[in-house]
Specification:
about 180 residues; mainly alpha
């Protein structure tokens, strides 16, 4: 009887730990998922489904994550689930809206992981299964595309001299990705 009670107590403690983790990390992860799917954060059903699936997988692996960071694990699951649904279209989806609408799926994924989540190039490459050079190229292309979209949308004049290319940590790119960060 005592063994069963101890196992139940451990399970309940794990559940409380997971609930605390999910409560603390869900907002930022949902925003990352919304950036990936291109949905507005206030109405993002695909992003919510991605996040729920990633959190469910993290919960299933929770007992093995003692030494690992559960946020990293959940972010990895989120990215992998997005990649598996986005790169293998089974049905026609609406075009993404918002700040990252002009980016391709891979560019959007690399930009969110690199600039919004702050994942290193090497880790991003390993996470999504691309060479580091490809991740670097995708990130640079995405930044150029975002910079060009800002100029065409009336945020700048085409006759003004070109601005230097945005870099990681640049406030213009950070503002576009991190509106809900604060």
């Amino acid at each position: 009887m005592r063994e069963r009670r101890t196992a139940t107590d451990r399970r309940r403690a794990r559940e409380r730990e997971f609930e605390a983790f999910a409560a603390g990390a869900a907002g930022r992860l949902l925003h990352a998922a919304a950036l990936l799917t291109g949905e507005p954060p206030e109405a993002a059903p695909r992003a919510e489904r991605l996040l729920i699936a990633a959190l469910a997988r993290t919960y299933a692996d929770w007992h093995r994550l003692r030494d690992d960071d559960p946020y990293d694990h959940t972010r990895q699951e989120l990215a992998l689930r997005y990649a598996s649904t986005a790169w293998h279209p089974r049905r026609r989806r609406r075009a993404p809206a918002g700040v990252l609408a002009g980016l391709g799926r891979q560019e959007r994924m690399v930009l969110v992981l690199r600039l919004y989540e702050g994942v290193a190039e090497e880790q991003t490459a390993a996470l999504i299964g691309l060479p580091v050079e490809r991740v670097h190229t995708l990130c640079a292309r995405a930044i150029r595309t975002m910079r060009g979209n800002g100029d065409r949308n009336g945020n700048g004049d085409r006759n003004t001299p070109p601005r230097p290319a945005p870099r990681i940590g640049d406030s213009r790119v950070g503002e576009a990705l991190g509106e809900a960060r604060t």
